[in-house]
């Protein structure tokens, strides 16, 4: 009887351990929200783009690049991970954006060492 209880306990502990490991392996920094939002039609002037992720970011290995509708890189300030919220990266704009479509390309390294990248678009009216 004691052996059966011990085997059951060990089986449950093993399953819980595997589940915890699987959760850690899936802890990538995914884009949670952005300002402006994906597919937004912006009617007011922007001073910056703010991207918020699900995990903390490594500043030295995270960046954001803004491109216009022709694919040309838009001059901006340097993208910086927020000191108040390590899950946010902010891209300062140095000039007002002209009307048109824009693509935001990002790549980040989360504090747990996982790289992710992606993009989204918005339109200035």
Structure write-up:
The chain is built from one helix and eight strands, in the order αββββββββ. The chain is α+β, with helices and mostly antiparallel strands and 125 residues long. It has one domain (28-124): Immunoglobulin-like. The strands form two sheets. It has a four-stranded antiparallel sheet with strand order 1-3-6-5, with no helix packed on it. A four-stranded mixed sheet has the order 2-8-7-4, with no helix packed on it. Strand 5 and strand 6 (88-92) form a beta hairpin. The longest helix has 24 residues, at 2-25. The radius of gyration is 21 Å and the shape is elongated.
Short summary:
With 125 residues, this protein is an alpha+beta fold. Helices cover 19% and strands 37% of the residues.
């Amino acid at each position: 009887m004691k052996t059966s209880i011990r085997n059951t306990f060990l089986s449950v502990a093993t399953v819980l351990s595997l589940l915890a490991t699987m959760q850690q392996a899936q802890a990538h920094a995914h884009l949670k929200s952005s300002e402006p939002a994906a597919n937004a039609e912006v009617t007011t002037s922007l001073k910056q783009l703010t991207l918020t992720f699900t995990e903390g970011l490594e500043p030295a290995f995270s960046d954001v690049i803004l491109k216009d509708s022709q694919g040309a890189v838009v001059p901006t300030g340097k993208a910086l991970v927020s000191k108040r919220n390590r899950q946010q990266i902010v891209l300062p704009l140095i000039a007002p954006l002209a009307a048109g479509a824009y693509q935001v390309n990002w790549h980040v390294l989360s504090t747990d060492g996982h790289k992710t990248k992606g993009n989204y678009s918005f339109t200035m009216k």
